């Protein structure tokens, strides 16, 4: 609710008004009686959409006069009016002199009490503050007071049947070869970087300048970006596919040309879904030599006593990420089934505001599941490609999961939050206290709690589902590198910078080794 720039409840305290110590305050019974007396309101509620209410409120003239009378009754005994002793001026004169101040005070009191009464009499289940402008409302000299406001609410819907859903759950047992392959990928961060003048290979690092253009006009440019040679470059509003094929066998100094596809969610409407020209100038090429797993290196890496201990940590990371893929696959199925009949419209303003919540939820889940900052940025960039569409589905899912959570008293306990913060802290190599402080400062603790509660609701649905185990989808077919840049040149909320310039993640030692 928007309030006045000035405090409408404070009357002047200079020579115009003064305390009158001789005046007797009204009795507690009289004050309580005034507070308990309800307003005579006429309330009209319109429903522009399932999540919107437009409310028109009319306050009777009798109520306005009662509030004015109470205000002047309180003011007269302590009013200072030239030519009269304090509290001795005629009421009519006091009313004339302080009409504006009392009018603002009474307007504030009437509107506040009316809004409170409307909220008590009508359960809107509001999900946002009312769109209400105090300054635009004028107190009438005669007649009733009518004002309007909009509020976003939780939609009323018939709860879908969520028990006995038929779901697939991805399963996978990681082989030793897969663990060793993942270990080699992670060890690239600790490798020796050497300049390379020969042809580029898929495992190399390149420093490039990238220019995006359309119809001969430059849209944006990236300069001096160092990245691994991977199959796809995922930007905030598009992708460069086959990036590895473009650069493989090229050399330092070469200029390569290709195209990029702009997402349908691009801020520039004339670029949405279009293909734009891309020029990649190769500034430098580096080759990484993976270190040998000697005892000294294992100790330096994280206090590991053997290669087997390192592999055990890597396996734990893979299994934690497998659990994330399992949960996401189940959640996608559950969302699809439960939102089939959720055909209620969501207002664009709500979707735009909630899109940030969806981004926060996804980032926190990925952090808690042990994914690298590059992987997190990659997913965030992909989410932005269809942010409104994804947000609409996620918001409908949220309303359904929220109702299940309320019906079954599911909540995020202090212990749940501590565990979640601990997992995020381990992934980012920070203390849980520092992670909590950052999330509180950024206002993201609510997103963390919602994430925990929604996950509990998903787990409850899964417990009552008919589960069929299937093989894990091959998540290694496509390797991506995320760049925090918009092809269109438009500025959007950026994702936190990766911890390592090469786009790889650190190997986190278990608690015993830190």
Protein described:
The protein has helices at 28-36, 61-75, 91-97, 99-121, 176-186, 243-247, 295-302, 307-338, 348-368, 373-385, 387-407, 414-428, 432-441, 445-463, and strands spanning 41-49, 52-59, 145-152, 166-171, 192-195, 205-214, 217-228, 232-235, 238-241, 255-262, 275-289, 466-471, 480-482. By secondary structure, it is of the alpha+beta class. Strands 5, 6, 7, 8, 9, 10, 11 and 13 form an eight-stranded mixed sheet that branches. Residues 1-27 and 493-514 have low confidence and may be disordered.
Produce a short descriptive summary.
By secondary structure, this protein is an alpha+beta fold. It has helices spanning 28-36, 61-75, 91-97, 99-121, 176-186, 243-247, 295-302, 307-338, 348-368, 373-385, 387-407, 414-428, 432-441, 445-463, and strands at residues 41-49, 52-59, 145-152, 166-171, 192-195, 205-214, 217-228, 232-235, 238-241, 255-262, 275-289, 466-471, 480-482.
